[in-house]
Specification:
alpha+beta, Beta-Lactamase, Heat Shock Protein 90, 3 domains, five-stranded antiparallel β-sheet, rod-shaped
């Protein structure tokens, strides 16, 4: 399942809830309107039924007839949808609108004067809303019992309900759009504190600020407090680790000095081979200690700073030139003086020094060092004209303990990679024709405002 943002999920859920609620409300309002229309129709039919009963009279020949029919002209229009009917003394009286049809009244017994409401079928395969009353006529009209009914086709009621729903839909659409937009606006402002938390976490990670702070709404404040507490705990743990690494490094200094003193004593006694072996062991131990101190700085997030690449590269080359490997090489430095990286000078020296030292050991005659700023990154290239690396092993040399020959200590490229990654950079290795190019990518230092 693809991940959706919290804002989008809430917006979609809110929009769906609004649409469902308005659909249900429309159905309920339409049903309510239909019930209201039917009650109005029943009230009108009741009045007309009263008029039908009140209009009964006898002719000169004594037959019963509707002498004063209701005034609604639809009673005189055939199949108009509005009808009246009277059953008396076995005779049937009906409106002209019924033409030759008869209302199919059910055979029920009605108390005198009571009204029954029926839904009856009509001749057009529809239905009729029918009001029926059984009345005993006064003695002047013969005291007979008559059964009178008035009916109205329900097609008009259905049409009124459909018209109401058609008129209601556009307003509901406008209301839905307004509510959805209002919900999105509410989500935008309501979730802004969470977006602010993300920005401050990024700022803490990049070193622009130390903590998230406590200026958040009370719903988000517990999260910010817990994140700050986690940062405090991590910093305390890293500080303890740095102190332990520093204590370990300082603890090695005295034995290393003793070993170097012993090597000097052996050299004075013409035991040069043994002195050289002890010096190599002491140098390896010193390099391990220095690199572990570098790792402790990386763990503590203290790599932020600003360093100019050109003087650092020149200083490293001046040292490597004094070594047997470096003295026999031609060194070319093409680094602009204004190229700076967001890294402490000591860490840049550590990361770049390893690359230059490796190049000096494997180059045949030439090592080229160049640098250029590309957008927000600085790329420092160290190119030698040596045999290069096996393609399937290039990535292995970034890992701890891997080396191209037995002369390395297997930590150099791993240290350079860790330093670069600690500030958002990377290390790239690429075979050339001939030689090997190692590119150290580091974030460019911010230019100072004038």
């Amino acid at each position: 399942m693809r991940r959706l943002s919290l804002r989008l999920r809430l917006a979609l859920a809110g929009a769906l809830a609004i649409v469902v609620a308005l659909v249900i409300a429309s159905i309920a309002l339409t049903a309510l309107f239909a019930a209201h229309v039917q009650r109005r129709a029943e009230a009108e039919l009741s009045v007309q039924l009263d008029q039908v009963v009140a209009g009964l009279g006898r002719n000169a020949d004594g037959t019963l007839e509707l002498q004063n029919p209701p005034a609604d002209p639809r009673f005189d229009q055939p199949l108009s949808g509005l009808y009246w009917q009277i059953v008396v003394e076995g005779a049937l009286l009906r409106s002209r609108s019924l033409w030759d049809h008869v209302l199919p009244l059910p055979p029920d017994e009605l108390p005198d004067g009571h009204v029954h409401i029926h839904i009856l079928p009509d001749q057009a395969d529809g239905s009729l809303l029918t009001l029926e009353r059984s009345v005993t006529l006064p003695p002047s009209l013969g005291s007979e019992r008559v059964r009178a009914a008035v009916a109205l086709t329900t097609a008009d009621l259905r049409q009124a309900r459909a018209d109401f729903l058609r008129d209601l839909v556009p307003y509901n659409v406008i209301l839905a759009i307004a509510l959805i937009v209002a919900g999105w606006v509410q989500l935008f402002f309501g979730l802004r504190p969470l977006a602010e938390v993300g920005k401050r976490v990024l700022a803490v990670r990049s070193g622009q600020q130390k903590r998230l702070g406590d200026d958040f709404p009370k719903e988000v404040l517990p999260l910010a407090i817990e994140v700050d507490a986690l940062i405090d705990a991590r910093e305390a743990e890293l500080e303890r680790a740095r102190r332990r690494a520093g204590d370990l490094a300082h603890g090695f200094k005295t034995p290393l000095q003793a070993l170097l003193g012993e090597a000097d004593r052996l050299r004075k006694n013409d035991q040069n081979e043994a002195a050289r072996a002890i010096e190599e062991i002491a140098d390896a131990m010193r390099r391990h200690v220095d690199r572990e101190l570098t790792r402790s700085r990386l763990a503590g997030g203290t790599t932020k700073g600003k360093a100019t690449v050109a003087p650092v590269a020149r200083n490293i080359v001046s040292v490597v030139r004094r070594t047997p490997d470096g003295s026999a090489l031609d060194w070319q430095i093409a680094v602009p003086e204004d190229v700076c990286v967001a890294l402490e000078a000591n860490d840049l020296t550590e990361a770049l020094g390893v690359l230059i030292e490796n190049a000096s050991r494997h180059a045949t005659s030439l090592v080229t060092i160049s640098a250029a700023r590309r957008h927000e990154m600085v790329e420092i290239d160290v190119l030698d004209d040596g045999p290069g690396m096996a393609e399937d092993r290039i990535d292995e040399f970034r890992l701890r303990g891997m080396r191209a020959d037995e002369s390395g200590h297997g930590l150099g490229l791993a240290i350079s990679t860790e330093i670069a990654q600690a500030v958002g950079g990377a290390l790239k290795i690429e075979n050339m024709s001939p030689g090997l190019r190692v590119t150290l990518q580091l974030p460019a230092a911010q230019r100072e405002q004038p």
